């Protein structure tokens, strides 16, 4: 009985957890999704707060968005040209045809998984939405750090996803003891080659002429 009470008391103590993600050489990795799991965690909310993935300066912002399952996401286009946002991913398939400003409705993500986002007009516009049923999720900043708040002091599993994960891994998995509040997670990556310079006579230029 005493051990059970001590376990409950320990679980009631919550603290922030800091995860640092790097490549094997110690260079920081931004845009890594970090998920924390533990036994007897509460189930995901049925209606979590909405999220936003914008289009600015011919790029998706943020590049990686981590959301709880059942989240609705809006894709506002703040560029002067129209975009065509889509995904063929198993976790979510959708198609928002050419538009500027705000689309007619948000997209709801009800299945856990990684959703690759693209623009059907601009091939170099790419982004990712990590939809998770983990009780805590965050994304690393430019320094490779993710701050995850209000985590109970129990044994936890750390899952790290990055678009450059090598060896076909879905996520790098580590164990985090109850009394540890920070961890360095180096992961093997396979960065893609640098994209070629944008062709001024590309599909966008032809589209602009047609749209006039």
Automatic annotation (TrEMBL):
Q: Which InterPro entries match?
A: Cupredoxin, MauL
Feature: compositional bias, Basic and acidic residues: 197-212
Give me the ranges of the annotated region Disordered: 188-212
Name of the protein this chain belongs to: Methylamine utilization protein
């Amino acid at each position: 009985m005493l051990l059970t009470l001590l376990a409950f008391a320990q679980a009631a103590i919550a603290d922030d957890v800091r995860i640092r993600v790097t490549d094997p050489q110690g260079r920081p990795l931004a845009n890594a999704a970090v998920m924390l799991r533990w036994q007897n965690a509460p189930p995901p909310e049925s209606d979590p707060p909405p999220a936003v993935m914008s289009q600015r300066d011919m790029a998706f912002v943020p590049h990686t968005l981590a959301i709880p399952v059942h989240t609705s996401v809006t894709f506002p286009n703040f560029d002067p040209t129209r975009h065509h946002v889509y995904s063929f991913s198993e976790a979510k398939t959708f198609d928002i045809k050419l538009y500027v400003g705000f689309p007619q409705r948000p997209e709801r993500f009800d299945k856990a998984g990684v959703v690759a986002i693209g623009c059907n007009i601009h091939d170099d516009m790419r982004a990712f939405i990590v939809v998770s049923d983990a009780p805590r999720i965050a994304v690393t900043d430019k320094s490779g750090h993710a701050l995850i708040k209000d985590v109970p002091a129990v044994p936890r599993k750390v899952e790290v996803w990055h678009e450059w994960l090598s060896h076909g891994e879905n996520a790098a998995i580590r164990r985090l003891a109850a009394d540890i509040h920070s961890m360095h997670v180096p992961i093997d990556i396979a960065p893609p080659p640098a994209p070629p310079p944008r062709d001024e006579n590309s599909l966008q230029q032809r589209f602009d002429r047609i749209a006039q």
